[in-house]
């Protein structure tokens, strides 16, 4: 059994569904963000993009479920989270949206592999165990 990744155009809501793109225009205007260590540089680039509305969220679940609601009403939406726990936490919402053909875009930002062992990414700088 193969997996097929569909193009964004194939994921548009059908007429009669909950929502649809206003005036037939499909595009990302709102990006829901959860700040983290590795996505701050990306935020600088997103802030510089005209016509893009950046909305900070308290946690990844707020970001991804708000992204889902906006995709249902506008046709497409995006969120930005950090890697590992945040990236894995958004999978359920994305699976739900995929099963209903609502296109969500999630940008999961991680460390640059060239930075391992440098000042930018020390090996064990954080210990949650004490």
From TrEMBL:
Cofactor: a metal cation; thiamine diphosphate
Transmembrane segments: none
GO terms assigned for molecular function: metal ion binding; pyruvate decarboxylase activity; thiamine pyrophosphate binding
One cellular-component annotation, GO: cytosol
Superkingdom of this protein's organism: Eukaryota
Occurrences of domain Thiamine pyrophosphate enzyme N-terminal TPP-binding (ranges): 27-118
Keyword Lyase: yes
Catalytic activity: a 2-oxocarboxylate + H(+) = an aldehyde + CO2
EC number(s) per entry: 4.1.1.1
Top EC class for this record: lyase
UniProt record, GO biological process: aromatic amino acid family catabolic process to alcohol via Ehrlich pathway
Subunit structure: Homotetramer.
Name of this protein: pyruvate decarboxylase
